[in-house]
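Example 4.3 (complexes with small molecules)
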Amino acid sequence: MKKNIMKNLTPSQIVTELNKYIIGQDDAKRAVAIALRNRWRRQQVAEGIREEIMPNNIIMIGPTGVGKTEIARRLAKLTGAPFYKVEASKFTEVGYVGRDVESMIRDLTELSVNMVKAEQTELVQEKANKIAEEKILDLLIPPVKTPPKPVAEGEVPEESEAVRNEKTRVWMREKLRKGELDEKMIEFDTTTGGIGMQVVGPFGMDDMGINIQEIVGSMMPKKRKKRKTTIKEARKILAQEEAQKLIDMDNVQKEAIKRVQETGIVFLDEIDKVAGNSKGGHGPDVSREGVQRDLLPIVEGSTVNTKYGPVKTDHILFLASGAFHVSKPSDLIPELQGRFPIRVELKSLTEEDFIKILTIPENALLKQYAALLQTEKVEITFEDEAIREIAKIATIVNEEVENIGARRLHTILTTLLEDILFDVPDKMPDGKIKINGEMVNEKLDSIVKNRDLSKYIL
Ligand SMILES: Nc1ncnc2c1ncn2[C@@H]1O[C@H](COP(=O)(O)OP(=O)(O)O)[C@@H](O)[C@H]1O
Ligand SMILES: [Mg+2]
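Answer. The structure with magnesium ion bound is encoded below.
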């Protein structure tokens, strides 16, 4: 087990890590770093006062595509925390048709269960592979059941069947490991796959934390089923099945719930869409306020029933985000405002930022494309002039068509590189491509100049 997966990074360490992926937005980085550390601090203080300390939930305010989600996602990733992102506008008030607010905690828990399960599966995988291998060998060379023949006195015992069998097994195992038997067909018993029955409960049952699948599943005998596949496939299926048997699901669920409660992060996107605007009035505002009222107990700390057991939300970190073009954070109901005491503004990205975003982060787009093409033994490089042109075009299109922030870089690069991605590897004999400013202009200028065209293409 990756013990203590939640590395207790200090705020400055967190910011340093975030800097590897996100350009600028220093205020937001500092705020989330403090919030994360404060959660840990809060968990350390004595019980009496702990309840008095409010969590540091944050509202991130800023236009689209400037890094709000990315900051939250990276934060979760670098601490190994379960992370769930959801649009607040997807929820409707209790009693209305739509997702109820508590479902986000169930989804977060589900995610955590899968995460822990994957980790534990990895730990037993090698053992499971070995068992699967032996099972296949059993099928190829059934073990001997007859006891060795009694040997008369003075006689040289002939090689027993068991010994011979074992020798064949060793030889066969070798072949199996080398993959020489991969394509051979084999028939075997399995409980996984093939049954293919999905039980769909009455509407909303899952939303109430009841696992119909499990209830019905446990009432039915586990059905073994014969399957015939290649040996390669059979090894995979059997290894998976064995791994499932080796992990302790009770333990997985317990650990998963613990992780959600102590380290979980919920990202509530588009919170501005459930903020009524100050004018008051009727209609949709009523239900928006209802969603906020439903959110409140969860953010304040309550217990949500999930199919894996009750989950306490007291220490879950909530990060909300929104553009707040129409409404303002002060349009949220006061109680909810109180639960999101920290507000940070994220800035629009400049042309200079785009240049950095293209080149600096560990997952920078240009690095991604270089890695993709590297698989075809093609080396692509971008001259500074080209990078500047791409950043400039992104800024222009954002201004003239629609501001989608750094997402614009994705659309521009796919257009710019489309031909190359198509032609590689057939038409790239020397394996080197150099993109210069002129090439960028040639490819994109006409599209940028034609507004309608750029609307569709970029
Ligand atoms: N400041 C930034 N630094 C690096 N990449 C960024 C930045 N802002 C946005 N991006 C990239 O742009 C895309 C969209 O960003 P995202 O965080 O989802 O935007 P939003 O602010 O709308 O949540 C992501 O691929 C992200 O990596
Ligand atoms: Mg977003």
